[in-house]
Specification:
This protein is α/β, with parallel strands linked by helices and 119 residues long. It has one domain. It has 4 helices and 5 strands, in the order E-E-H-E-H-E-H-H-E. Strands 1-5-4-3-2 form a 5-stranded mixed sheet. Helix 2 packs parallel to helix 4 (93-105). The longest helix is centred in the middle third of the chain and has 14 residues, at 56-69. The chain starts with a strand and ends with a strand.
Length: 119
């Protein structure tokens, strides 16, 4: 289950949106063909369960591959909320707040972020 940390007004602007939720390595093995159509309004990139989320520099590299390569209105960041949700790929609070989120939020295509927690 994803828990949003902040209001996402860009999501509420229209009643229907076409979205996708690929894994963070680019290109996504299963969804790349669909994502390349340019038909998606939002792309929720899953930056959890992969090494890309645990290192701010790797996150930035992956984000910089996704956002210019796929035509979508907004990109959303999915990250693990705790060690229980992702183990070794968990991003500690300080680098998340000081590096990862400010970097993503500075992008014109940034939509919002969500944290995945294991129930």
């Amino acid at each position: 289950m994803l828990h949003l940390l902040e209001d996402c007004p860009s999501v509420a602007e229209a009643a229907n949106k076409l979205t996708a939720s690929p894994q963070c390595p680019f290109p996504d093995h299963w969804l790349n063909g669909l994502l390349s159509t340019g038909l998606f309004d939002h792309v929720w990139i899953q930056f959890y369960m992969r090494v890309y989320s645990s290192n701010p520099d790797n996150f930035k590299k992956s984000w910089n591959l996704w956002t210019p390569s796929i035509t979508a209105g907004k990109f959303f960041v999915g990250l693990p909320a705790s060690h229980a949700a992702a183990g070794s790929v968990y991003v500690p609070t300080n680098p998340l707040i000081s590096q990862v989120l400010p970097f993503a939020k500075a992008a014109s295509k940034y939509g919002c972020h969500a944290l995945r927690q294991v129930q």
